[in-house]
Specification:
Shape: elongated
Number of strands: 7
Radius of gyration: 28 Å
Distance between the termini: 71 Å
Largest sheet: 4 strands, antiparallel
Length: 152
């Protein structure tokens, strides 16, 4: 279902989080879990402190893109920040979905800072039984052979 990533992705994420917040042109990655549950795939993204109206989910062909923006909780004009460890800015994640998933019926739910997407498996990808029919009368296939005589 998912495209594999390189083993240094977590190190890159931490480095970018420390050095600079995500921007629309260069968003930060967001942590996620993905698993199969019955007849659907579930993908959960950690987005604590993100308003539901700041989340954007797009599907184009088999590419799922989730973008979110965490804005400052307080007005910084009248506040002197003593400590700021919560990353702000834009977060984004792209996932390549298998053709066996029904991208027309994705369900999204946001609760307690976790965005959960449920993607059903397409009907065409589910296993099914195929019955074999037989007939009571057998048909015989006649094969004809043409021979040529060469006169000489």
């Amino acid at each position: 279902m998912l495209m594999r990533t390189d083993p240094f992705r977590e190190l890159d994420r931490i480095t970018e989080q420390i050095l600079r917040p995500g921007t629309w042109s260069r968003p930060s990655a967001m942590p996620m879990d993905a698993y199969r549950e019955g007849e659907e795939y579930v993908v959960a993204f950690d987005l604590p402190g993100v308003s539901p109206d700041a989340i954007d989910i797009d599907v184009e062909r088999n590419m799922l893109t989730v973008r979110a923006e965490r804005r400052p909780a307080v007005d910084t004009d009248n506040v002197q920040m003593e400590l700021s460890e919560r990353p702000l800015g834009v977060f984004s994640r792209q996932i390549v979905l298998a053709d066996t998933l029904d991208t027309e019926r994705i369900d999204a739910d946001y609760d307690a800072g976790v965005l959960t997407l449920r993607i059903p498996i397409a009907e065409r990808a589910k296993p099914r039984k195929i019955s074999v029919g037989g007939s009571s009368s057998h048909k015989q296939i006649k094969q004809t052979r043409q021979t040529r005589q060469i006169k000489g």
